[in-house]
Amino acid sequence: MSTPFPFSAIVAQDEMKAALLIAAVDARIGGVMVFGDRGTGKSTAVRALAALLPPIQVVEGSRFNADPGDRGRYGACPVAADGKAVKGHVPFVDLPLGATEDRVVGALDLEAALTRGEKRFEPGLLARAHRGFLYIDEVNLLEDHLVDLLLDVAASGENVVEREGLSVRHPARFVLVGSGNPEEGELRPQLLDRFGLSVEVRTPDNLADRIEILKRCDAFERTPEAFAAAWAKHEAKTLKRIARAKDHLSGVAVPDDVLALASKLCMAVGADGLRGELTLMRAARAAAALDRADTATAAHIAHVAPMALRHRLRRGVLDETGSSVRIERALAEVMAA
Amino acid sequence: MNDAGPGALDLFRVDPAGFGGVVLRGPPSEARDAWLAALGPARRLPPGIDDARLLGGLDVAATLAAGRPVTAAGLLAEADGGVVIVPMAERIGDGLAGRLAAVLDTHEVVVERDGAGGRSRARVALVLLDEGVEDERVPEALAERLAFHVEQPSTPELFHVAQIAAARARLAGVAVPAEALAALCATAAAVGVATARAVIFALRAARAAAALAGRDTVTEADVALAARLVLAPRATRLPPVEAQPEDTPPPPPDNPGDRDTDEDRAPSPDAMTEMVLAAVQAALPDKLLAGGRARKSRRRGDAGSGRGAGERRLSWRRGRPTGTRAGQPGGGKRLALAATLTAAAVWQKARGASGGKVAIRASDLRIRRFETRAEATVIVAVDASGSAALARLAEAKGAVELLLAQAYVLRTQVALIAFRGVAAELVLPPTRSLTRARRVLGEMAGGGGTPLAAGLDAACALALGVRGKGRTPRLVLLTDGRGNVARVPDAGRAQAEADALNAAMLLRGIGIDTVLIDTAPRPRPATAELAAAMGARYLALPRLDAEAVARAAAA
Questions:
Q1: Does residue B2 sit at the A interface (CB-CB below 8 Å)?
Q2: What is the least distance, in Å, from the CA of A154 to any CA of chain B?
Q3: Does residue A275 carry a catalytic annotation?
Q4: CA dist B272 to B117, B184, B229, Å?
Q5: What distance in Å separates residue B112's CA from the closest CA in chain A?
Q6: pTM listed for this prediction
Q7: CATH topology of domain A7-54+90-201
Q8: Which of A20, B73, B126, B314 stands 20 to 30 A from B215 (CA)?
Q9: Distances in Å between the alpha carbon of B1 and those of B6, B184, B188, B286, B480?
Q10: B1-159, which class in CATH?
Q11: Catalytic one among A275, A282, A310, A312?
């Protein structure tokens, strides 16, 4: 996996790409769940995102990805207080299947303990993913207790470790990205609605797209570097777009009538709780920022509504009416009113 | 098969890791042995391998001896560059399948477990020996990542090692004309192969075939061979009759104006597609042909799924680990090494350990703790006969919905048996997938006689099967108790009732937790007696209320 497949070279799958970009712009949106058929390039797209993330400032040598602008919160990190601030990559951590809890939350540093008798905290994957992305392919195969733990930390933004005589807490803010195939067992609904956005990926059914996918995969496979180079310009453009949108985000206004539209829409589809409205608003704002617009509009709401709401609808478990259809219908009604 | 060119095995040998591997389906045979022999030295994956051996981790003995953490590579990393044979592949669980799939995707093993973390290269190919019968199959998520699926392998006629080596050297330089890509994509669409991976594998196969033939360009014959070997076994439907892929985007070539522009881009892509499609059609699995375009094959295909009896296999999940506690290993209790070492570590100085030795006392020993709640499978047997009435069938469906919703939260499995007419049918094998359940329930029809005995027998057989897989079966039976079809059809009502009573007693004999929900508008004492005969709890629900059914089943 030396050269990742360029994000911009992914054919079709517009909704998935949009959701990932929105999550890259505003980490508070609360993660993305990608559902889809096999062989639709779910993991390819998610992993490709890693190359598109504009660099961040980190404290040099910090294993907690300490933020030089907020050094006070990293008591567990020995270098956070006075390490040099440097430019670093946004972390992108792939959670492997079979990972155990000690590696995820962090544990006693075995090496230090065994060789020097020192009681030291060895940060885990959560620390490594701080300020970045944590990706779980095949979420439905992950042990339940790990999923619970990840969602809990993702929501609180802090990892609290009380084990093996250690008592450590450190910031752990990351965007959780999961992918899975619903035919292989579904996520519990109470977990699902904790993801900010959810998208459904299908195999493109038009032949031209399918041929283009095959062409690009083949070209990438044969000469990955040349292929990546050919797409470098597109990639740089997307990276810039994300960086700009991040800067621009706080300046995007969400007018009252747009907020009202979001609330009405949530009521119309019966999306439970405030979380839906909040996500809808944030996603619309991030979408506006990506468009370089100063104001989020009804069109932005319409654009993000399916991904922000489809997993929050209250419905009979066996209700066949697709969530997306219901949202579209509600959108048409609410916007006409 | 071999007169048509190289076989799957030859292509596979040209680029094992590129093809991901082969599923060899069928009982052990000389032919299969010949296949395995042709692969050369290969690692075998022992059934029931644990994560430590599969992925790697902390090496117990070495860590203790050295006094510092020492990691050991797992089998997959050791097999880097080679082939791994997976016996009894139809029985591997989703967890193992997922781990293997991740390695096939990334060509590396990433370990983050029990005090050890790291990644190592593992460019491997898998040969899955699938000895499953009927619906028992290799998990689809894994099969999907292997280029070749061979049913009942025949003894391969092999290309010489030198030819294979020459082809390998030639492979990177083989050019692929644009119409070959189009033909593969159109063929895949025509036979209902949705996943992009299959088409990519087919393209690689075409290239390998050209290289084996000593050519630098892929020809029509190469594409046809590749489609036959890679796409045909994955077909989920017969191509549309007019042999014209139904979702070809450009307008039909009857219009001469359009035809001109098409030909500017790629010379007659349709001709090649037609030829490739014909080759695939000739190689379509018999089952597909027999089933025609029946719904069954579509159901398999439309989401690229077809887990079939997947969930019926032994579960890889060993319950929920709830951490570790102090205690002595042995007697089925497993040592938690990392926890033991960490417990000991802080005392090393105090205990005066030196020279790389670790001083471990019995009090340091930690064992793993799992929450060993056996997972349940709720078997819902629904009387879908005419006497149960169609309206009530809809209500029964509502109850099953709620049961499913519960199962979904509790992570139990649900299976559904419907009995009507003269027989009982397992309409939904044990599953946790709502998507499948939804589909099946929607398609369930009602009407006909009440083969109550057959329904009970089917439930009994399924319950035993479930128990055999280490899960706890529970039965929810929805019926009005008016059995009127005996085990042998046309044996009369009295015989039907006797059979039902007999089946009920058999059920009692295997001792599973059963609830009988009487769906008759006016419950009869006979139904309660039947419930007593099967040792079931009896609930008369003259007004079938979905919530009450669900509550009863959960209790």
A1: no
A2: 19
A3: yes
A4: 50, 9, 17
A5: 5
A6: 0.74
A7: Rossmann fold (3.40.50)
A8: B126
A9: 8, 21, 21, 16, 56
A10: alpha beta
A11: A275
